[in-house]
């Protein structure tokens, strides 16, 4: 085919969309403003760069909704999942990757594809003609964001997202810390010992909370409001919600035994996850923060085992933007006022690397079908893909619309299984959700426009 699809943004959604469309025979142009135009969070000009965590979260496709989304993307020849498998790091039950080689591989695969070209310039206006996917993510440039706001006639929605710090592994005191994945998850020894754990007594935890609450934080600019996404709250905000919040969140001590003192159960535990294949860098899990740099060093060095820690990167905060997708997009992810433009990725109001890539995958397949003069049938809402796209294109309440990770709460109830609700039956219920989803996703793929491997 000679049809050309233009994709604005080379992150997870844009990269996956380009791969899907190019493999289906479309000519694709990726418009990526980096490295000419930088953002707060990106460090390179690579496509598919990971800017926050290096984890795609749970890979359990039988008991976890995001793991199910991994499975569905693999079944659809997804580039992001293929590349993640090549650069996987031990992370217990999670799918974590060596972030720089991952992005380099995504870039290499896309730039080597005969149907893909990359144009390194900033798109500042919504195009009037041609077929486009806007996949600029949460760090959409100010000029393009303003163009979107003017076109939609609505104030753009915004929330603040925070980045966790990264520590040099050889500066962690291993006389205090130990290696263990929660509940010893993993099939190999590397997986079962994928995390660094720093234990705290009650007094140490209380002192840490006091230091967090008293620390200097980044100030917001005039007119900005802090609408945090609950899945990525700064630790100071969590602490402000209650002194025990962190201990029941990222610092929960369950499933861990202190190798240095097995008889004593820690009151709280700070976990660090490997951030590169060499094992020289570890990020502090769940420790997104808006503390100023000096305060970060002072507060984090009160954590037992991190007294002499050195940081490869400190945490930070940036503004993320997303559209009110349930109001603005149709069921084919097209902007209602300009049907030649689709939106995909985090700008649509999905949250997370995997969810963003998944929406890129769907948007591209919809564009491929349209290029053939067809319309894709709706993705079954019983699948992880379908649950997400249904949520952002009308399933969510537009008045209270906020970014959302994939979760089983978005799935239609089970029927005819005899499985009751409640925590006691959760394992059977989740397995029934994933079994149903896999069957429905496989059937949907077989009925839609093929994308050759």
Automatic annotation (TrEMBL):
Pfam families: GIDA (PF01134). Its EC number is 2.1.1.74. FAD binds at residues 9-14. InterPro entries: FAD/NAD-bd_sf, MnmG-rel, MnmG-rel_CS, MnmG_N, TrmFO. The keyword rRNA-binding does not apply. Residues 5-373 form the MnmG N-terminal domain. Keywords: Cytoplasm, FAD, Flavoprotein, Methyltransferase, NAD, NADP, Transferase, tRNA processing. It comes from the Bacteria. It is found in: Cytoplasm. Its cofactor is FAD. It catalyses: uridine(54) in tRNA + (6R)-5,10-methylene-5,6,7,8-tetrahydrofolate + NADH + H(+) = 5-methyluridine(54) in tRNA + (6S)-5,6,7,8-tetrahydrofolate + NAD(+); uridine(54) in tRNA + (6R)-5,10-methylene-5,6,7,8-tetrahydrofolate + NADPH + H(+) = 5-methyluridine(54) in tRNA + (6S)-5,6,7,8-tetrahydrofolate + NADP(+). Its main location: cytoplasm. Belongs to the MnmG family. TrmFO subfamily. NAD-binding protein involved in the addition of a carboxymethylaminomethyl (cmnm) group at the wobble position (U34) of certain tRNAs, forming tRNA-cmnm(5)s(2)U34. This is Methylenetetrahydrofolate--tRNA-(uracil-5-)-methyltransferase TrmFO.
């Amino acid at each position: 085919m000679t049809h050309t699809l233009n994709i604005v943004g080379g992150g997870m959604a844009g990269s996956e969309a380009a791969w899907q469309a190019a493999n289906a025979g479309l000519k694709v142009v990726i418009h990526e403003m980096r490295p000419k135009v930088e953002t707060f969070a990106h460090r390179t000009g690579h496509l598919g760069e990971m800017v926050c965590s290096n984890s795609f979260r749970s890979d359990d496709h039988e008991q976890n909704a995001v793991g199910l989304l991994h499975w569905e993307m693999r079944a659809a020849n997804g580039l992001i999942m293929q590349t993640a498998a090549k650069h996987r790091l031990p992370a217990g039950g999670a799918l974590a990757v060596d972030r720089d080689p991952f992005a380099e591989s995504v870039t290499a695969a896309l730039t080597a594809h005969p149907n893909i070209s990359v144009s390194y310039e900033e798109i500042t206006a919504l195009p009037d003609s041609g077929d486009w996917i806007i996949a600029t993510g949460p760090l959409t440039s100010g000029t393009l964001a303003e163009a979107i706001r003017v076109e939609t006639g609505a104030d753009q929605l915004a929330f603040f997202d925070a980045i966790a710090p990264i520590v040099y592994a050889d500066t962690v005191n291993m006389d205090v810390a130990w290696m263990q994945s929660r509940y010893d998850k993993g099939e190999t020894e590397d997986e079962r010992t994928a995390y660094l754990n720093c234990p705290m007594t009650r007094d140490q935890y209380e002192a840490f909370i006091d230091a967090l609450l008293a620390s200097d934080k980044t100030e917001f600019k005039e007119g900005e409001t802090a609408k945090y996404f609950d899945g990525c709250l700064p630790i100071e905000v969590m602490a402000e919600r209650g002194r025990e919040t962190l201990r029941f969140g990222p610092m929960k001590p369950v499933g861990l035994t202190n190798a240095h003192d097995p008889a004593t159960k820690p009151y709280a535990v700070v976990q660090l996850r490997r951030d590169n294949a060499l094992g020289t860098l570890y990020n502090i899990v769940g420790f997104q923060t808006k503390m100023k740099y000096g305060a970060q060093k002072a507060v984090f060095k009160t954590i037992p085992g991190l007294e002499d820690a050195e940081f490869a990167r400190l945490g930070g905060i940036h503004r993320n933007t997303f559209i009110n997708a349930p109001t603005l997009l149709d069921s084919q992810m097209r902007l209602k006022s300009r049907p030649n433009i689709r939106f995909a990725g985090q700008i649509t109001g999905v949250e997370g690397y995997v969810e963003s890539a998944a929406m890129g995958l769907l948007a591209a397949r919809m564009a491929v079908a349209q290029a053939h003069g067809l319309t894709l049938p709706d993705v079954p809402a019983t699948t992880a893909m379908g649950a997400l796209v249904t949520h952002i294109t009308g399933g969510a309440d537009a008045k209270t619309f906020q970014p959302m990770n994939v979760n089983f709460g978005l799935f239609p109830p089970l029927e005819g299984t005899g499985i009751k609700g409640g925590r006691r039956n959760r394992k059977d219920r989740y397995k029934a959700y994933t079994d149903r989803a896999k069957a429905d996703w496989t059937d949907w793929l077989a009925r839609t426009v093929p994308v050759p491997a």
